[in-house]
Design goal:
The complex is a heterodimer of chains A (114) and B (109).
Chain A (H helix, E strand, L loop, with lengths): L4 E3 L2 E4 L5 E6 L6 E8 L3 E9 L2 E4 L8 E7 L2 E6 L8 E8 L7 E3 L3 E5 L1
Parallel strand pairs in A: 2-11
Antiparallel strand pairs in A: 1-3, 3-8, 4-5, 4-9, 5-6, 7-8, 9-10, 9-11
Chain B lengths: L3 E4 L2 E5 L4 E7 L3 E9 L5 E7 L2 E5 L2 E6 L4 E6 L8 E9 L5 E3 L3 E6 L1
Classes of the chains: A mainly beta (114), B mainly beta (109).
């Protein structure tokens, strides 16, 4: 397996535009996590899914953020409209089971909103 | 909300030294996660544990549930171990994840 694949690796967009980040988890993994990392706040968990169902989205900062997982092999994180304070690195991770092993991280998407 | 404290914040070691990074938390948890973030930004999950001890190569993670404390040990440290090590805890009875601020480790040849 190629690991967790995120796209794009870098995204620069103007304030007010819609941004969609994509993630392909490792095949067979039943948990998928979206994280955000900034200098100010460090790593934060935004939302996670179990078997394609969102379990906890309390980390999603506001209604401008939404995440979907239409099937076991694909998830999106959408920001609409984007703001400069959304600039961060967004990581996706997947794992098999809860607390039974390690999670595997994608390389991240560096988002810059100007 | 769980408070997660890591120590030290920064650590410089000579190659070959034994290294310990500590993580303390304030409220009971269901599991604790150790992550490694390389200078390039990539994140690797090292361990997830809820009791006892786990070992992988030169890395050892221990957790003491009663004392609300975990340690990450690196034996025979190497410059390639240079990274930021992050502790994160999952709340007991909830799925909230709280991160520590990280420990920046530099191993000098």
């Amino acid at each position: 397996d190629a690991g967790v694949i995120q796209s794009p690796r870098h995204e620069v967009t103007e304030m007010g535009q819609e941004v969609t980040l994509r993630c392909k988890p490792i095949s067979g993994h039943d948990y998928l996590f979206w994280y955000r990392q900034t200098m100010m706040r460090g790593l934060e968990l935004l939302i996670y899914f179990n078997n394609n169902v969102p379990i906890d989205d309390s980390g999603m900062p506001e209604d401008r953020f939404s995440a979907k997982m239409p099937n076991a092999s694909f998830s999106t994180l959408k920001i609409q409209p984007s703001e400069p304070r959304d600039s961060a690195v967004y990581f996706c991770a997947s794992s098999l089971g809860w607390g039974q092993g390690s999670a595997f991280f994608g390389q991240g998407t560096r988002l810059t909103v100007v | 909300k769980n408070e997660v404290e890591q120590s030290p914040q920064n650590l410089t070691a000579q190659e070959g030294e034994f290294i310990t990074i500590n993580c303390s938390y304030s409220v009971g948890i269901s599991a604790l996660h150790w992550l490694q973030q390389h200078p390039g930004g990539g994140i690797v999950s090292l361990f997830m544990l809820s009791s006892g001890k786990k070992k992988h190569g030169r890395l050892i993670a221990t957790i003491n549930i009663q004392e609300k404390h975990s340690s990450l040990h690196i034996t025979a440290s190497h410059p390639r171990d240079s990274a930021v090590y992050i502790c994160a805890v999952f709340g007991a009875g909830s799925y909230q994840l709280t991160f520590g601020k990280g420990t920046k480790l530099s191993v000098i040849p």
